[in-house]
Amino acid sequence: MDQGEYWLAHVLEREARGRFVHETVKKQFERLYRFKPRGVDVEDPSPGGFKYEILSGTASNLARHGRRMAGEFYRMLTF
Question: Alpha carbon 13 to chain centroid distance?
């Protein structure tokens, strides 16, 4: 921010919030679901289980994940 790159500071803050939320959810539900650092964030290991992506819910974040993971079928969990 001291160098005038406010946009970058906001992006980095949102990424840090996402990592925090991901870890918090993982601690609460890791006995029920499979958590992954790449690709879809959360998978239900049961046959036919759902996949979930944890997102900040901003328009740019939703669009980026939609483009990046166009071949996956998953539910978006926003915070």
Answer: 14
Give the residue carrying structure tokens 């650092």: 37
DSSP states along the chain = -TTS-HHHHHHHHHHHHHHHHHHHHHHHHTTTSEE-SSSSSEE--STT--EEEEE---HHHHHHHHHHTTT---EEEE-
pTM above the 0.85 mark?
Answer: no
pLDDT digits (tens, 9 = 90+) for 7-56: 888 888 988 998 899 999 999 999 999 998 888 899 999 999 999 999 88
Q: How far is it, in rounded angstroms, from Cα 1 to Cα 3?
A: 5
Contacts of 51 (CB under 8 A, 6+ apart): 40, 42, 43, 44, 72, 73, 74, 75
